[in-house]
Known about the structure:
The chain is of the alpha+beta class. The chain contains five helices and nine strands, in the order αβββααβββαβαββ. A nine-stranded mixed beta sheet has the order 1-8-9-7-6-5-4-3-2, with helices on both faces. The radius of gyration is 16 Å and the shape is globular.
Amino acid sequence: MRREIPISSLEGAQERRRAKTGGAERRNCIPMPDRENETNYAAPITNHQSPFTKPRAEMDIELPGRDTIVEIRPMRSEDLPEVLRIERETFSNPWPRGEFVEAISEPDCQAIVGRVSGRLAGYAMAWFLSEEVHIGNLAVAEAHRGKNIGSALLQVILKKAGQEHVPRLTLEVRVSNEAAQSLYRAHGFREVAIRKAYYLRPMEDALVMMKGL
């Protein structure tokens, strides 16, 4: 079984926040071959107010083939020490605490954690915008990788997106991260573009993936 590997970076989160206030464009975005009809994804994000109330998610998910229950609920400030530990052990360019504090207070951010036997096993963060849900961060603790924790977190975001009738979900992933790409393909995402030199430490292109609802 492939391990769930997270898919975000600090510079990506900062750009998305600037974009929501009309201060940035989706740059260096090259459509994938034979997907010319989806080049509108590379267009600038226009200024808007999120139409969504704060998304909430609380549920228990039983992992397939295992006697394990994942308790999924909204991320809270008391989760941050464990969240930051996973963030730092996973990413070469981790988000600082302030990014998480800001995100969990934003009305359009769905930040969730998954706990197994009381211990934080992973987390995910997605921004619910007017025309898309953008998955900005998904990470699983090293001890829990390969156990479908990432899939369980992703299922919660997909369910909420369907309830809100958002037309599509998007995300970026390193072009070398085949494990994460496999996870997203298994949930219906497909490649639509490449963003050049999107990641740092090391510098690498990002594969843009999209799922329509």
